[in-house]
Amino acid sequence: MSNESVATKDKLAQDLKIVIADAEELLRATASQAGEKVAAAREKFQDTLHHAKVKLAEAEDVMIDRTKQAARATDEYVHEHPWRAVGIAAGAGLIIGLLIGRR
User: What residue segments make up the domains of the chain, in order of their start?
Assistant: First the structure.
């Protein structure tokens, strides 16, 4: 999984949390509204909101598991090839240093 994909999923999760919080606030604000249609709409909305929370929690769990797997794979690679890992890190540091130095 690419870093861009992970960043996009993180941003999506954050955005969904904001939407859920706003929806909960809207439900609290309309709690005093009466009427059969309003009550039915609120109930349907609460069910949808609950479903979204569950799906978001599942997505976060999957993302955490994949991140842990990637960290384990990286750790194993570094332990199996320490000098290659040092070389890659040094090369990346050199490139970043050159790019920063040009500013």
Answer: 3-101
